[in-house]
Amino acid sequence: MVDLILAKRAGAAHSREEIDFIIEGVVKDSIKDYQLSAWLMAVCFQGMTLDETTSLTDAMTKSGQVLDLSSIGPVVGDKHSTGGVGDKTTLVFAPMLAAAGVPMAKLSGRGLGHTGGTLDKLEAIPGFRVDLSNEQFVRQVREIGAAISGQTRELAPADGKIYAMRDVTGTVDSLPLIVSSILSKKFAAGTNLIILDVKCGRGALMDTEEKAAELAYRLTCVGDRLGKPVTAVVTDMEQPLGFAVGHTLEVIEAIETLQGRGPADLQELCFGLGALALVKAGKAADEEKGRKILQDVIASGAALAKFRQIIEHQGGDSRVIDNPALMPTAKLQHNVVVPGQGQVWIKHIDGRAVAEACKQIGAGRAAKEDKINLAVGVVLKGKVGSVLAAGQPVAVIHADTPEACRLAADTISNAISYSDTPVAVPSVIKARVG
């Protein structure tokens, strides 16, 4: 392993055999954490070729069991986001698509870096199990059309270990590591309709649209090379998605969106990605018709009923849909107000800074064994383009101590800038690749 660390540090490309050796060592624990972290850093600095990334993805996929979902139906879907701030899309997308007739076998992850994790958010629902076995996962998708769970030890186990190590070694934003992590989970889960939401902006792992497009390109290339075509969409994450950032707060906002009263940007993203998925699945002739199908399952309550069904099948308390107070709730609320005088428009919101404010009050991890506070977070009262008056709240901090409120308030205040003239509302979907 030392030889391979030195080789990658010097910029050499690994052979398939060398990559197989590394992945086998990760799974069998013959490679120590300090060696793995050194190799990850070397990859982060030197990168990998498409051949290497393809080999790494395939080796990680085959490091454990690969599910066969063919008994569920001809099309089984999955959607993945590269991570963002306030990104609760999966909580809306999965039940919405399932209600529209596309089975959703969704494997999700924990928070990584400054971005939140779907599994952490779901654990704000009392009793919700995110650790379904492979058999339970497949059975639930077959029975009710959807499941959202973490990867088991049997599915892409190498990725599970590497994923946790990346979070605490400063190697989260390495393109080949992102590609192999995302795709190995998707391929191991056995889905054949894969929509990838590649975020760009200050709140994303890729801070520019160009970097996000490069990641999207690599994802589609590796998918094609392994005979598993994927579609990637580049979306905005300069500012948080929706208004809520924080685990309980994001579950509440997802429920509101399934009730048809969610934030405009979150609805637009879910309908846009969902319409694309329905076309790919053969459920809609075009995206306009797909969007109409999704609007109907929201308006009829079918999508919300599907989310309730998912919660109940995974051991959660579905009463949270009607009574959010059953989830962890912060002890204090603190308003951050618009400074100055008169009327202003929000010019910019730094998504990463909002995420850092949430970490300051306990909503994120600094080490892989850290516990997170599911109750705390931030709720914005406006987005870029919103008009507010001086003295109005621009954000509400949910925290457990006055000191935490003060820390987060300073960070949030510095994260938001204003204009004296109207500001255009940015588009959510930037580009499509694949």
Description:
The chain is of the alpha/beta class and 434 residues long. The chain has 3 domains: 2-47, Transferase, Pyrimidine Nucleoside Phosphorylase, Chain C (Transferase, Pyrimidine Nucleoside Phosphorylase, Chain A, domain 3, Up-down Bundle); 77-324, Nucleoside phosphorylase/phosphoribosyltransferase catalytic domain (Pyrimidine Nucleoside Phosphorylase, Chain A, domain 2), CATH 3.40.1030; 329-419, Alpha-Beta Complex (Aldehyde Oxidoreductase, domain 3), CATH 3.90.1170.30. Helix content is 45%, strand content 15%. The chain has 16 helices and 13 strands. The protein has helices at 2-9, 16-28, 33-46, 50-61, 89-99, 118-122, 134-144, 157-167, 175-189, 209-225, 247-258, 264-280, 287-299, 302-313, 351-360, 402-415, and strands at residues 77-81, 104-108, 146-150, 193-200, 231-236, 244-245, 332-337, 343-349, 377-380, 387-389, 393-399, 416-419, 429-433. The strands form 4 sheets. The chain has a 4-stranded mixed sheet with strand order 1-4-5-13, sandwiched between helices. Strands 6-9-11-7 form a 4-stranded antiparallel sheet, sandwiched between helices. Strands 10-8-12 form a 3-stranded antiparallel sheet. α10 links the parallel β4 and β5. α12 packs across α13 (287-299). The longest helix is centred in the middle third of the chain and has 17 residues, at 209-225. It is globular, with a radius of gyration of 21 Å. The model has no long low-confidence stretch (mean pLDDT 94).
